[in-house]
Each structure stands twice: as structure tokens, then as C-alpha cells.
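C-alpha cells as discussed.
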């Protein structure tokens, strides 16, 4: 299988990158496709320069490879963009990290112990509006999501528009997971509140502020804040969902859907090039003052081995003992990866696509694929199959 680059990508790559032979990276993405994925596109920047490649197919029944710089729904990488934006507003004096969120958003009746920092850090204890799985295995549903028993309902309503306030109020109608500041639990609710906070203090939309402070300054022309639009710019790979209806198995193309169901928990669209540009600028101090960048990267225990959380980023230990700054984004039928060493010398950005279903059939293959790429790029080795991936 050959590595595919579009003519446009070739024209914008340094000659060394376009001709660079990295058989270990090529082999890694081929093996990921063989493990059950439709397609993978990968971009690596390190001391050897830039490498881009793709494997698999862009759509079912086709032969074209995924575009190496195609647009993709970036899922929870949206949280890193949003946290950066909040911290930029802290730098402008419009927000204070340790001020009560309720002081900015009094209309929701938030627990008056929850600070802005707790929202960005996932230590607020608020219920996740996309549903919670508790330690005893109990599942409490929120809005319909593509998984578990609500998968078909999500499919049928995938063009429905949710308002951010609606998602917050649903979350607040459920019991909190814990007292504010006493634990860690990943919740999209925190970042929808961060969106509303941004819009409240600036008087402008999230999209406008994102353009003013991040997308414009960095020239991220492939990055979109879609709000409720189901469209995704070309080129892009396709994503699919399979389900059973009236005894028949169906597989449908769900590339177009309304992302307002997850809102700022994971609705943005970007490219591997833009994600590389963004994470590189972030770790190199081009978006935040040094003191706020240090706050962002200060790890807080999550209970997940080797993975702590800062403000909108995971601070992860690699198998070879290094540290990477990361925030991946899982979405229905696709995922985006975004990793950087703290000094920005090495970055990895990638998009993976597959046929999804309510049972999350790819759930085992995905962390293995993720670990394989991280070890290849940051450790120069294969993932240890005896070591569980996180």
C-alpha cells in the first residue's frame, strides 16, 4: 500500500518531508487499518522533519485513500481550543480562574463552590449531559447518544438542534457526581458552561472569539466552529454507523450530522495540519503568557494511570518515561489524535475513521491503535501488547 498525498499537500510540504521515507510509520498506519479501521491519516513533526501519510479508504466501496489533510470532526480536541480561549480571556482580565462560575452565569443556579478552574479541570462534579457510567456499572442516560440503548434514537434525531443552555439545564437536573473540588470526572457539561461563560463576558459568539484569538492569529483556515451546521468542508473521509432495524442490518453514512448534541464538548472541525499548528503554538507559548501556560499544564490526578489532567489537556506519561501534552477527540465513527512533547519538538496529529455502532465494536482496537502510534513517534517502538492502553 502506498502513501498518498494530494497535489495540494505536496506543494505545501518541504521537499524533505515529501520524499521522506519512514517505513515504520507507514507500517503502523497499515496495521491500524488491518485491525478494523476504514482509514487513517497521520502527520508527524520531529527532529527528522515532517511526514504525512494515509492508509485505508476514504469511503466504503471506494479505492481512494483518506486525504492526508482532510477535514475531520475533532471531538474533544475542542476542549483544548476552548480552555485556551478562556485562559486568553484571563490574560485580558475578563475572567478570573478562581472566581465562582455562578458569578458569571447566575441564571443557572450553579453550586456556589464551583470555580472557572474546576470547569476547565473537570473537578466540578457536574453530571455529564451525554450520560454517566458509575463505578458500580450503573448507567444514567442524558441526551440520546450513539451508544448503548440510545443509538438508534440518536441516528433518527441526528439533525436535531440542541441549545447549549438546554444541555446545561439537563445536566443540572441530575445529581452531581461529587462535591465540587473533591474528585475528577470528565464531563462535557463543564465545557458547554465554558462556552457560555466566554459569550457572556465578551458579548460575542464563541466562533467570533475563537477567530479573534486563535484561528485568525494562527492562520487556521481549515478549522471551523460549526454550531448547529451538519456540513463538513471538503475534502474529508466518510464515517458510518450500523444498526439493526426490523431484523435487517443497515449501514448508513453519517458524515453529515448536527454536532450541537455535544456542543463545545466536541463539535469543532479541523485538519491534521491545523491541529499541529495549534498544539505547537500552544506549547511554545505563542498563545498564552508563561504563567497561564504553566497553570494549563499543571497536572491534576484523574485516577487514570499515567494520565493526569491540566486545564483542557491531558498530561500523559509515555511507556518510555517521557511526557506528552495531549487531548484526543473521539466522535461517532471517527477520532482525532493530538500530541506534543512539552518543548514542541515532536508532534503527532492523526484522524481515524471506522464504521461505528451502539456496541462500540471498535472500543478495543482504538486504544491499541492510539498506543501504537504514540510509541512509534515518541518512543520509537511498538506498543507492548501485554500493557493495557489507557
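Sequence:
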Amino acid at each position: 500500500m502506498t502513501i498518498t498525498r494530494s497535489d495540494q499537500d505536496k506543494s505545501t510540504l518541504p521537499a524533505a518531508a515529501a520524499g521522506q521515507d519512514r517505513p515504520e510509520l507507514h507500517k503502523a498506519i497499515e496495521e491500524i487499518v488491518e485491525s478494523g479501521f476504514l482509514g487513517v491519516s497521520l502527520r508527524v513533526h520531529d527532529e527528522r522533519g515532517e511526514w504525512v501519510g494515509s492508509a485505508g479508504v476514504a469511503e466504503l466501496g471506494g479505492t481512494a485513500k483518506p486525504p492526508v489533510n482532510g477535514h475531520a470532526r475533532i471531538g474533544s480536541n475542542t476542549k483544548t481550543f476552548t480552555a485556551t480561549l478562556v485562559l486568553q480571556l484571563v490574560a485580558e482580565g475578563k475572567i478570573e480562574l478562581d472566581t465562582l462560575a455562578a458569578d458569571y452565569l447566575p441564571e443557572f443556579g450553579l453550586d456556589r463552590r464551583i470555580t472557572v478552574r474546576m470547569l476547565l479541570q473537570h473537578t466540578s462534579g457536574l453530571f455529564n449531559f451525554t450520560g454517566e457510567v458509575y463505578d458500580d456499572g450503573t448507567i444514567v442516560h442524558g441526551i440520546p447518544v450513539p451508544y448503548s440503548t440510545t443509538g438508534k434514537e440518536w441516528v433518527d434525531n441526528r439533525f436535531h438542534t440542541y441549545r447549549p443552555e438546554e444541555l446545561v439545564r439537563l445536566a443540572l437536573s441530575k445529581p452531581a457526581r461529587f462535591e465540587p473540588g473533591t474528585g475528577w470526572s470528565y464531563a462535557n457539561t463543564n465545557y458547554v458552561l465554558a462556552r457560555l461563560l466566554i459569550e457572556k463576558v465578551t458579548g460575542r459568539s464563541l466562533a467570533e472569539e475563537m477567530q479573534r484569538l486563535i484561528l485568525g492569529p494562527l492562520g487556521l483556515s481549515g478549522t471551523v466552529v460549526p454550531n448547529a451546521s451538519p456540513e463538513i468542508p471538503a475534502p474529508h473521509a466518510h464515517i458510518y454507523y450500523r444498526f439493526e432495524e426490523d431484523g435487517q442490518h443497515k449501514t448508513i453514512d453519517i458524515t453529515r450530522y448536527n454536532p450541537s448534541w455535544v456542543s463545545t464538548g466536541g463539535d469543532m472541525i479541523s485538519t491534521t495540519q491545523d491541529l499541529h499548528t495549534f498544539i505547537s503554538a500552544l506549547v511554545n507559548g505563542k498563545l498564552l503568557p508563561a504563567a497561564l501556560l504553566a497553570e494549563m499544564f499543571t497536572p491534576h490526578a484523574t485516577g487514570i494511570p499515567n494520565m493526569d489532567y491540566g486545564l483542557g489537556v491531558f498530561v500523559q506519561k509515555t511507556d518510555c518515561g517521557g511526557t506528552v501534552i495531549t487531548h484526543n477527540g473521539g466522535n461517532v465513527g471517527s477520532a482525532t489524535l493530538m500530541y506534543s512533547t512539552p518543548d514542541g519538538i515532536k508532534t503527532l496529529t492523526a484522524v481515524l475513521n471506522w464504521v461505528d455502532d451502539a456496541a462500540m465494536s471498535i472500543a478495543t482496537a482504538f486504544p491499541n491503535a492510539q498506543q501504537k502510534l504514540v510509541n512509534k513517534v515518541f518512543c520509537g517502538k511498538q506498543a507492548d501488547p501485554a500493557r493495557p492502553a489507557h
